[in-house]
Amino acid sequence: MKILIVSQYFYPENFRINGLALELKNRGHDVDVLTGKPNYPKGEYYEGYSFKGDEDERWNGINIYRVPLRARHKGAVNLVRNYLSFVHNANKRICKLNKEYNLIYVFEVSPITVALPAIKLKKKRNIPVIMNVQDLWPENVVAVTGIDNPIVNGAIGKLVNHIYKYTDLILASSPAFISNIQNRVANKDKVVYWPQYSLVRKSTKKDDIKVFDNSKINVVFTGNIGEAQGLDLVVEATKKMRDDSVVFHLTGDGRKREELENAVKKNNLEKYVKFHGFVEEEKIPCILEEASYALLILKPNPVFDMTIPAKLQTYIACACPILACVKGVSKKIISEGDMGVCTDDVSVEGLINAVEKIKKIDSNRRKEMSLNALKYSNKYFEKSTLINKLESYMEGVCQISKVKH
Q1: Residue 209 scores a pLDDT above 60
Q2: Who has the most CB within 10 Å: 8, 23, 126, 211?
């Protein structure tokens, strides 16, 4: 199958679409990617890239077509320019791609406008489109920006309806997304639940290297350090606790990191909260192997309550017990799988209370939660099973498209 992936983000940016593209390529598909210039999460172009011109390259047998993209920088205006510049330049480039594709696969993390170039090519060449919805719009816009203007939301809602209308299959990354999306489409059957899978798995290495001080309770966060992750609670909680037995390790990068680091230094919390910066994906299992608990926090918001954050799949695939302050579907999964301590009191006191609970858990109980996490991961988020299902969806959409045209 000849597949064109459309994603505003791609390697060397650290997104899950990288692994999926490689997996599809390894399964014998001919995969190309239309994307922008890498600048996420810091908002500055990666070394070797600039705004000017197309910068195409080949990566592990995959053609990457890179179009000019305004760097995110800081501020709402720059973010809007970033979104619009991709649509504008990808629209110009996509129709110049001469290959006869069987399918277009849209990887949608914000912004949803990433789908517009794909729809343009669909209309021009009758190529079916599958969209993987990671962020629910316009709900996600309200959650992240706080903008709840009826006129703005109405305009975004019409855009979303247009995109969904011309998408042949919509893959919802959370079961809680399905009804919201179905309310926007005539054909309810084209909306299906297809969860993310972990790109890493439990480490099998028996190295003697110790990442952390094992005399402490090491609570590890991995991934994007942004606004939605609510990591300011860690700073405020440690200010109150100042508990020498518990250390929070924040592994990753993002727009919120500098602010949090400054807060930690200002309050002399360096021995309670440690920043480790960006860590390559393949090293995450070794870090989680040494962790006592993996940290999951999502700020209270209806759309976050519906979301299954990708790091949850990573945590449980690595058999790491969870320490969580979350509501909604994430809390349901953690509780259902009996794989950690979870409170829906997403507050400083809620986090402190959760920490007090894990301090009372012995090694046997923690091992039991670890095994439960791995079992749940294998049952519901196993990589091969989910990609087999995706290939089946792709084949079905292509067959239906042939019949129609």
Answers
A1: no
A2: 8
